[in-house]
Amino acid sequence: MNQTNLSTALSAEEVIRARHSVRQYNRNVTIPDQTLNEILELAAAAPSSWNLQQWRFLVIRDQAQKDLVTKISYGQQQVSDASVTVVVLGDLEAHITAQEIYGEKLAAGQITQEIHDNMVNQVAGAYQNPQVARDEANKNAGLASMQLMLAAKAKGYDTVPMGGFDSAKLVEALKIPARFIPVMLLPIGEAATPARATDRLPLDKLVINETF
Hints:
By secondary structure, the protein is α+β, with helices and mostly antiparallel strands. The protein contains ten helices and four strands; from the N terminus they run αααβααβαααβαβα. Helix 3 packs across helix 8 and helix 6 runs antiparallel to helix 7.
């Protein structure tokens, strides 16, 4: 099944069930700009705490840059071979965005001044705790990452979430501002070798009803 047919044939449930981590990619496949932007737009539609959208997508397409990131990710070849490698960043200072988001809603008459002030102050208070800021950055960037992987699969491309990289070296090499932390790498491309489905624990080991 080619990529076009895949993207039109799969339902939401089928996309979820079809997504598996792929570590070998056809090296010379280019994802069209429009398609990549559609994937990123769908990823950015993920939910977030206070709607602060605590993620940024650092998109690596240049081969030399991908090769550089490959070294920083301990030589994992999928980073180099994939069409695109996205560095998903978490925002440690997302409270700054609250002013913009709720300011626009206030200006549009969608919320009152009181609601605006309450929300901005609530966010500012929460972000005074560095651990809250870090937890929110990781949690919400994780939500966007999962949505990105599903969006890519719906468009006919494969992905693999990666936590194996030297965060400090990545920050230095890509000049990532201190405001952001690397949460994961997401190579996106066309699988060279089909992914192997992995086993899942049965629901009776995963679901706890009401209380332990």
